[in-house]
Amino acid sequence: MSVWNYVVTAHKPTSVTHSCVGNFTSPQQLNLIVAKCTRIEIHLLTPQGLQPMVDVPIYGRIATLELFRPHNETQDSLFIATERYKFCVLQWDGEKSELLTRAMGDVSDRIGRPTDNGQIGIIDPDCRLIGLHLYDGLFKVIPFDNKGQLKEAFNIRLEELQVLDIKFLYGCVKPTIVVLYQDNKDARHVKTYEVALKDKDFVEGPWSQNNLDNGAGLLIPVPAPLGGVIIIGEETIVYCNANATFKAIPIKQSIIRAYGRVDPDGSRYLLGDNTGILHLLVLTHERERVTGLKIEYLGDTSIASSISYLDNGVVYVGSRFGDSQLVKLNLQADTNGSYVEVLERYVNLGPIVDFCVVDLDRQGQGQVVTCSGAFKDGSLRVVRNGIGINEQASVELQGIKGLWSLKSSFNDPYDMYLVVSFISETRFLAMNMEDELEETEIEGFDAQTQTLFCQNAISDLLIQVTANSVRLVSCTSRELVDQWNAPEGFSVNVASANVSQVLLATGGGHLVYLEIKDSKLVEVKHIQLEHEISCVDLNPIGDNPQYSSLAAVGMWTDISVRILSLPDLELIRKENLGGEIVPRSVLLCTLEGISYLLCAVGDGHLFSFLLSANTGELTDRKKVSLGTQPISLRTFSSKGTTHVFASSDRPTVIYSSNKKLLYSNVNLKEVNHMCPFNTAAIPDSLAIAKEGELSIGTIDDIQKLHIRTIPLNEQARRICHQEQSRTLAFCSFKHNQISIEESEIHYVRLLDHQTLSFCQLILLINMSMAAPSLAVHSRMITMFIIVWEQHMFYLRKTNLQR
Amino acid sequence: MWCEAVRLRERGELRARRFEAVARARRAASLALSNRKEFATPHHGAVNSVQVDLTEGRYLLSGASDGSAAIFDVQNATEYEAGFIAKHRSILLVDKQHENGHKFAVSMAIWYPVDTGLFVTASFDQYVKVWDTNSAQVVMDFKMPGKVYSAAMSPIATTHMLIATGSADVQVRLCDIASGAFTHTLSGHRDGIMSLEWSASSEWILMSGGCDGAIRFWDIRRAGCFCVLDQSRSQLGRRPPFLESTVEKSYSVQQRKGKSNKKPQTLHKSQIPGQGQIQQRLHPGLSTSQNRATAHYGAVTGLRTTTDGMYLLSSGSDSRLRLWDIDSGRNTLVNFEAMRLQTSKPLQLAVTEDPSLVFVPCMASIKAYNLWSGMTFQTLRGHYELVNCCYYSAQEQELFTGSNDRQILVWSPSTPDFTEMEDDDRRQKDFVADEDNWSD
């Protein structure tokens, strides 16, 4: 038998390479567009903050991202080029709310050497052409025609050998580029060229500037009417333009990596450097003449790879080395002298330099510990798959056959009682004043038999279904109000109820439907089906949360699930499941506004159907295997959203995301029964019956992956796990700036693998660590091995007592 | 240095391709005579040409003055001497004893670019022969009007299978393997043709260097040559100067102005006949002054394009190396430091793929020059007599050179680590000893 492997992305890319702001989705809406490696995220700016709109995958790594406004249009278009030399122009279709590809193509050349300093893609501010610098010595031009359509691309020879940056100048009669380049003597210059579209060549531009700062690496074109360009160096910032205006200011040595324009007239810019400091650059001007430059420190952010100024002092700082941030620039400095206030952080795992898999509970639910980030944003991240249940309390209880929670009154938001059913008795637990669970009695309930179902009902009643009877008990007096007895010779096998309806099945295929009317149980309908009934459900899925018009019934013998209408119990739809395994649990539920019928069979398979709440029509049948034992299904809610818990030998949480059913495993071994137990003391908790144990626990956020960050403030490079000593070891380093001289400090640290707290630090100074490798010694349990350049170290843990 | 590259790569700041390029460049910069690889040549005369096949990068073809051509496997050694010195013997030899062998010196031996099933030899016996590698038989021959100095096939051609040949005759002849006949003759040179090179970007463009000092560019689909390189024409003033009048004028003014500008601009065009379309309009009747332009004083002995197809290097009997911009056909005026070159023989130059270094046979040594600054980067000494040819294999970053001393030498990246690695082994042994102590 061949083994098939498949690869899925567990976590979408998170490292932000580009971002831009514009009116993309409508002329009135302001959008932030973020490029994350191979994905594009479009956000809408709302008074409440950033609201994600769409997240689209791009086939290829995004190399350039630019927004532009074509002639005679009110909305921006998006130009994307990928590292494999494909490009596209995207536009937003407001009617269908989807992206529209306006143009696409290939801009690769057969030969040519890819540029050293990355691809450059720029668009003329007057939208006459797109310029691309993809290969050394060539500048590719894609002209626009009068209607804004793209014409055939052509190459122009660019003699400059080492191009560092190219930008279009504003306010030029002909499209003009400014090129920052380095000559073969390592001196840096800028030069301008006009693009002559007709001749497909350059014309020498209006000005040039030789011998700039040796670290000059970034050009910022200044919009009209000021015009010109700002050249960012490592030690100076220079402004020059065609009128031979030349202004320069010295700056503290730093490498500016990203800039963002604040004002549309281009008088203020945000600059982010490689240590994560945000600066404000101000161009002082008198009318249309630039009189000077000013730079101010704003504060610390993540190391920025892109800066987008949104509105009202809110700035998006995209980062490749740390978490991207949404920051607010305040008018007043805080106590640390920082004007930056972080509003929101967006988790970024990249760059993942190394990782190890740690399986703590030996449940096959490993977690990944990654060395993420770089420089000051370095961190360890613990990525865990599945949903965790954190046990809060547990008692030893053998032989639990069922579990339900009850509220003390119908409108009480919290649960009060926990009904635990055993083979020949039923026990009641209640929260007392000290928030402890203690055994109690509900007089009206039958405690001497096994309970089949329990439920709060309308008008402050409680329903208990046992093999012989259905009991209605008042919440306040706890006394029996009404009772329905099973006919002589029949006992109730399965039952289900909601707040106003009860459906039960007795032997011989009898199905009885009761309704609660005026605190009385009224038998509304009784039918006999041709086979025995294995499970029933009437969870309301329609508009009325108190009354269901549909019931689901699972059958023995013909292995089918049937949808019956209520109250007349007429067959609407019969779906044969196939196979020989009897359905053991059915559930009608609504997740994210979509109704589903879930049906679990005895061998751990689960069928899901889309259910039309009005007609009872079943569509989109799907089958998944969750475990090997019978599954029982139950809904619960967490943070106001409904999810489904499937108890079996591999307990699973079923939830809906993006209108798709997702299955996430739970960090528990085997669960027999589960019911939500939302108490005031532990809100949103679950009561879980395991083998010989009843426990109460809280559940994580319902999502696929959970990421925990351990900030290091230094860059971790290698990590490894040793199970025997319960530790993780990692190597990291840090730049240490003492006065001018820069030195690196290298560390090896030990972490406890459960709590992830630091337990030991080994300092290694003055080692140039090229590529260390770290391994666990196979025989000696207290040892890590580090291979460091040409030396090999053994680390022995002596003072690590556990 | 390379630690930093590894770190940058780890952080994703350096793209994979760039990282590779950095590593290749570092290796190329550390070339030294290989102390692990040797070729045992069967040649009894000067080695005139060496080339590694373009498909696998595995088989080295050499041609020598004794009329022989040989093939070596550069990856798998025939035997090992002293345990680790790989000795490569020829796996195929065709010489005068062969029934169809060349009678006189083989001046050029080249691989068929598409696979290793064919190779082509050009000889002073006025023949160009096409050989079947597997059977070692001549499948086709072409008789030339004089000594053949040079033969070249386009590595990128998909629509033609032409061998361009240069001989003591003034014409470049194109031999078609498909039909076994001459398809074209290209006339223009006033003397024999010593070197030929196909363009790396267009399969129709051929470049030829003659003993008359001219380098001519031919488009083989058209008659005549379309460009003659002129050593005195530099990049300076290639672009039409910026027209002062177009600055700081509003659109409306400009549109009116636009018309009046047209005239001066067309004037510019006719003044720069170095340019693509314009040149083609000009030939075949290239202005006589241009037609007489020379690239070198004396003969052009070697031509080589860079792998990106942007630049052409030429060597001349005036002991000069020149770097030309192919697109504009202008001299870049890179001043390569003083050298002495052989004057009477075609030379085979080699360029690294970045292109940062050019290897030039300078008498008995090979000089590596920085392509952009023209500075001598390194002088490779090892041959005892004049060096004729060098070939740089981008795959392994190795340089192969052939000389009058009948040897083919291999220059490999001298990984600094060879000796250090031995040290490492020793060190590791020490640690092994430690480990044993510990585990007690």
UniProtKB/TrEMBL annotation, chain A:
InterPro entries linked: Beta-prop_RSE1/DDB1/CPSF1_1st, Beta-prop_RSE1/DDB1/CPSF1_2nd, RSE1/DDB1/CFT1
RSE1/DDB1/CPSF1 second beta-propeller domain segment(s): 390-699
Pfam families for this protein: Beta-prop_RSE1_1st, Beta-prop_RSE1_2nd
Domain named RSE1/DDB1/CPSF1 first beta-propeller: residues: 15-344
UniProt name for this protein: DNA damage-binding protein 1
UniProtKB/TrEMBL annotation, chain B:
GO terms under cellular component: Cul4A-RING E3 ubiquitin ligase complex; nucleotide-excision repair complex
Keyword line: WD repeat
Polar residues: bias regions: 267-277
SMART domains membership: WD40 (SM00320)
Superkingdom of the organism of origin: Eukaryota
GO biological process: proteasome-mediated ubiquitin-dependent protein catabolic process; protein polyubiquitination; transcription-coupled nucleotide-excision repair
Segments of this protein annotated with the region Disordered: 247-277, 415-440
Signal peptide coordinates: none
Pfam family, one: WD40
Skewed-composition ranges (Basic residues): 256-266
Alphabetical list of InterPro entries matching this protein: Rad28/ERCC8/Ckn1/ATCSA-1, WD40_repeat_CS, WD40_rpt
Record flagged with keyword Acyltransferase: no
Keyword set includes Kinase: no
WD-type repeats, residues: 40-82, 99-141, 186-221, 293-334, 380-421
Protein name: DNA excision repair protein ERCC-8
Organism whose genome encodes this protein: Zizania palustris (Northern wild rice)
